[in-house]
Specification:
The protein has 428 residues and is α/β, with parallel strands linked by helices. It contains 16 helices and 14 strands. The chain has a six-stranded parallel beta sheet, sandwiched between helices. The protein has a six-stranded parallel beta sheet with strand order 11-10-9-12-13-14. β1, α1 and β2 form a beta-alpha-beta unit. α9 crosses α11, α9 packs parallel to α12 and α12 crosses α13. Bound molecules: uridine-5'-diphosphate-glucuronic acid.
Length: 428
Amino acid sequence: MNICVIGCGYVGLTTGTVLSHFGHDVTCVDIDSQKVDALNNGVCIIHEDGLESMLQKQLQKGTLEFSTDIHKHLQRNAVILVAVGTPASATGKTDLTYIDQVIENITLSTQDDEKKTIIIKSTVPPGTNEYIQTRLIESGKRKDRFTVISNPEFLREGTALYDLLNPDKVVVGGRNPLELEFIRKMYAYLPSEYFFTSPVTAELIKYASNAFLATKISFINELQRICEAYKGDISVVAEAIGCDPRIGPHFLKAGLGYGGYCLPKDIQSLSHAATVKGVVPSLLYSVERVNNSQVDMYIDFLEKEAGDLNHRKITVWGLAFKSNTDDTRDSPSYRLIKRLNEKGAILTAYDPAAVNKSKIVRTSKDQYESIKDADILIIATDWMDFIEADWTKVKAEMNGSIIMDARNCLNPSDVRSAGLNYVAPGIG
Ligand code: UGA
């Protein structure tokens, strides 16, 4: 197949590279010329395990290229995969500006006698695929010119390549079973569960998936507060309930809350879509409320453990919204840094991959240099470098001894045996 991927973000870049690896001829277009130049030179612009080497291999083979010339590639390719951003607006309503631009570009670049298959990968509110189809049909004389297929993406940042090559499901929202066959072929008949459903159900599966994950996190974070009040241990509670296959062990790690580009905006967008139809999403509102107050809970806890934070030297390990990514969008770590700054703390941060974009925190290039003379160290992202830190070295560098594990990822006895004071809410 000749495929044009619109948008070189996490989803577009990884999907485009993998589709070329599957044997298709792929051009990924983006408006950012610096990004496009870097990618054409084999430089992967995101921190994603294994992606750079696959990208370089496909560039060498000549089956993958990057371009800013959207019109040329929309004209040339019969298959168009849409992976543009769908950010949240202030009301929680999804901003579909980039989707509208894509529709505009497709109608401008195609002739009435050309047939195009348009695959929507971007996460969009229920009804959007229908809206895209209608707008495209209205733009020309022939009704059968465009086939719009919803194919939501479930990859996680940090394991994007693995997830794309080993999907637990592929969801295809369409009108004609031939569309399912088309998508199976596009994914080189990857073994997986395939769900062929209506476009709106496909859109809702995507939101339901992220909403359920967020619900699990807020559930365990609320339980953490109850554990703290009764001096119970949230880690053991999570481990024990996770043994029940009806509950499962994943997404039960209490911590600073969920962040990133997807979960926060998708929960808001689903809530908004519900209210538009008169449905009150009480549970989703609670999920958000717990998440939005999690950083304050940690600040209150730290003040109880360490006293006034004004002028205290605090080092934060981790800026990315989770480990194995350099993405800091909506990172709980920055929410924490902001609150610590308001409390008058003197801040230093360190992250193995993420680049600091905030002026309120100084960053160090070295993990151990970052804690020199620190009174308090906070673990804000569960990077392996932190889980396996040399705690004796940490003790030698620091002035104080408080280690607050805000991701419940450390082994408390490793930390304590180095003479440090391990603290975390809800660990008994
Ligand atoms: C999420 C979904 O997991 C993917 O399936 C989906 O495709 C993607 O959104 C998307 O919609 O594009 P991602 O944003 O990469 O993927 O991040 P997650 O791995 O879901 O983590 C989200 C947040 O939850 C992180 O801040 C993480 O630290 C936090 N988290 C995760 C916890 O606080 N506790 C846990 O037990 C697990």
